[in-house]
């Protein structure tokens, strides 16, 4: 960074979804997060997720579509959006089963990877890929 630049803090990951309240409830049930805030307008929700907030907002909204373009959900079951959400768990197998039992669509059951991480993949209710993995220590 240039001299005198402000040091940024990663504050939010905003997920564009079809139904904000439904997505917040789904992530709470499937992945174990508490809903911190659900705006009365149902155009914004936040999960209690540590230093970086996971937030949900509608795919299409007057406030941002004209400025930054309309959000695009994966169009077909086999398509993947340009961002993947990743969660670390101590017990990936149990977390994966819980997510699927809570309505996540199974993509790939957890398996041990050559780099030392156990990883499984599901899709959320909007088709967004969620990677569920163990934390790899250096």
TrEMBL record:
Gene name, Swiss-Prot/TrEMBL: LOC102715925
Residue span, VOC domain: 9-135
Domain of life: Eukaryota
InterPro entries: Glyas_Bleomycin-R_OHBP_Dase, Glyas_Fos-R_dOase_dom, GlyoxalaseI/FosfomycinResist, VOC_core
Protein name: VOC domain-containing protein
Organism encoding this protein: Oryza brachyantha
